[in-house]
Amino acid sequence: MATRIRPSSKRCAVIGGSGFLGRHLVEKLLDKGYTVSVFDIRQSYELPGVTFHQGDLCDKQALLTALQDVSLVFHCASPAPASDDKALFQRVNIQGTQTVLQACTEAGVQKVVLTSSASVVFEGTDIKDGREDLPYAKKPIDYYTETKIEQEKLVLKACDKEKGLLTVAIRPHGIFGPRDPQLVPILVDTARRGKMKFIIGSAYHITNDEPVRFWDFMADILVGLGYAAPRYHLPYTLVYGLALLLWLLSLLLRPLVAFKPTFTPMRVALAGTHHFYSCSRAKQDMGYKPVVSLKDGIRRTVESYPHLRHGA
Predict the structure, then answer these.
(1) Parent domain of 49
(2) Could you tell me the pTM of the whole model?
(3) Is 144 considered catalytic here?
(4) I need a labelling partner for 130 at 20 to 30 A (CA). Which of 72, 108, 282, 309 fits?
(5) Are the CB atoms for 61 and 39 separated by under 8 Å?
(6) What is the CATH number of the domain that holds 103?
(7) Which DSSP letter does residue 9 get?
(8) Is residue 125 located within the same domain as residue 46?
(9) Number of domains within the chain
(10) Which of 143, 144, 240, 277 is catalytic?
């Protein structure tokens, strides 16, 4: 079959464009001269140059409307990792992605960029300088990771130069910044309840290609907002075991009592193990270079949350 060729337009679509990452992406695309079509289950803002389409990710006809005259699609839609709803993760990350790929093919989209996750190779054990050739996790820690693995496989398998559809998956790790609805609010809520006094194990993250101890990073956020930094050390295996026990209890008691543990097994694993990743392939193939330093990123994040400061 001949490759489908048509001129690339400056019109793209961001699926999940009302979310934290999606909105920041939309704003950057506008800065680069794109007009943007946003498809999401909700509309959370208005911007010149952006057309919003509200709909279900599994509704192909609604997607086709949003993808009209679009040559490039960014797929950022996913439930929050902490939602712990297996059916929702399967519907959005797997069934929804299948529908997105079908709609892209029918609409003549040329390129699809998936926001995957570094967690697709993480099983709760140390990863140091991890590269893209690491195998997928055989025992994913949570439903989010399990379905992100299947989602990434679907998108990469759909890449077909002969049919004119190119796909790629990127695996950001530890996204944070202004308007973050997860990390900072959860961190502050935990600190306000007096539960952010302990350091679990010892870990390193790479954020913006800059190595940093995980708990040093957390301390910079907390201290910047006026809270005390964690200072008491707890053994990783003990805390992980307790988190696993609480998670199992929450599942067993769900029909009777609804409660969500603050420290899930995944959160404890992320906080208490080494997991940093090499950016060398992105640098080599795409000329990747962070545009915001870690220090500046933390400063911008702290400044964007005056209402979460201690005493506010």
Answers:
(1) 11-170
(2) 0.86
(3) yes
(4) 72
(5) no
(6) 3.40.50.720
(7) P
(8) yes
(9) 2
(10) 144
For residue 211, report the phi and psi dihedrals to the nearest 5 degrees.
-65, 140
Q: 201 falls in which pLDDT band (50, 70, 90)?
A: low
Tokens 């997860």, residue? 182
Sign for the pseudo-dihedral over CA of 174, 224, 184, 180: negative
DSSP 39-70: EESS-----TTEEEEE--TT-HHHHHHHTTT-
In this predicted model, what pLDDT tens digit does every residue of 99-147 receive, in sequence order? 999 999 999 999 999 999 999 999 988 888 888 889 999 999 889 999 9
For the chain, the residue count is 312
Residue 91: CB partners within 8 Å, gap ≥ 6? Answer: 57, 58
Percent of the residues in the chain that have a pLDDT greater than 70, as a whole number: 94
Give residue-wise pLDDT tens across range 56-78: 999 999 999 999 999 999 999 99
- The answer to whether position 177 is within a domain reads no
In a domain, 287, yes or no: yes
CATH number of the domain at 289, please.
3.90.25
Task: Say which amino acid occupies 231.
Answer: R
Question: Distance between CA atoms of 182 and 27, rounded to whole angstroms?
Answer: 20
